[in-house]
Amino acid sequence: MTANQLRAKxxxxxxxxxxxxxxxxxxxxxSDFDHSEVDGGNxxxxxxxxxxxxxxxxxxxxxxxxxxxKHNERRRRVEDNLAIVFMGFILVFLCCHAPRICLDIHExxxxxxxxxxxxxxxxxxxxxxxxxxxxxxxxxxxxAATNILIYCxxxxxxxxxxxxxxxxxx
Length: 170
Hints:
Elements: H1 3-13, H2 43-53, H3 57-119, H4 127-154, H5 156-167
Helix pairs in contact: 1-2, 3-4, 4-5
Protein name: G-protein coupled receptors family 1 profile domain-containing protein
Keywords: Membrane, Transmembrane, Transmembrane helix
InterPro entries: GPCR-Ligand_Int
């Protein structure tokens, strides 16, 4: 038997917990420990006491994994929120820049024809494309102006900071 098993057996026999200090007992034999009680056959009880008193490692590992899981879940939510904000930027960017890109492609294919028309005294591009150029310029300005609106509508942290700076700040 190991020393821990002997201590546990002694605790069971004297009705005390393994962590409690032993009470003063009479020792009639000349040694510090009565060896006649060791061979009582209660070693299985000793093992149970030792196993109950030590915390299981699986529970510690499970708690550690739960904390990591919660941390990863929070981080994933933050990253998902950032992805939504960036998707909002991209969507607005594409909607505002699409007319300009289409006009640039149109101009690329009709530039030679437009230069020939101008050389003969006619207008180079059709009226609809001249109007669309002004509309696309307005959309480009709106694209720059809507970035703050996207931040405010999709990011709660940005809204809080915005309110703190502009509404409550001095």
